[in-house]
Amino acid sequence: MTREYLVVYEKSSDNWSAFSPDFPGCGTVGDGLEDTRANMREAMEVYLAETAKAGESLPEASATSVNFAEFDPEHATKEYFVEWLSVSVPLSLIPSESTQAA
Length: 102
Prior knowledge:
The protein is an alpha+beta fold and 102 residues long. The protein has helices spanning 33-53, 68-71, 97-101, and strands spanning 2-11, 16-19, 27-30, 79-88. The protein has a 4-stranded antiparallel β-sheet, covered by helices on one side. The longest helix has 21 residues, at 33-53.
């Protein structure tokens, strides 16, 4: 199964970085956009697996916009790319209805 989450990519002079508002503290960097996208997908999949292993609820894909002034008030970064990134979520990580009712 896959879910789509909002991801923000920022281009600096040396590399790209990425984060998702739905995954607090989860981010990555890469040499190019494609590297960063692959790194971010992997980081999010690990985040989901570790969250499930800890018995916590998986984050819902709830972010639909980003307030750039919140994380870049000086507008220092001039190039952003925002997309819905598909992330694999093994069915074993998604609680069944019977598990949720317990």
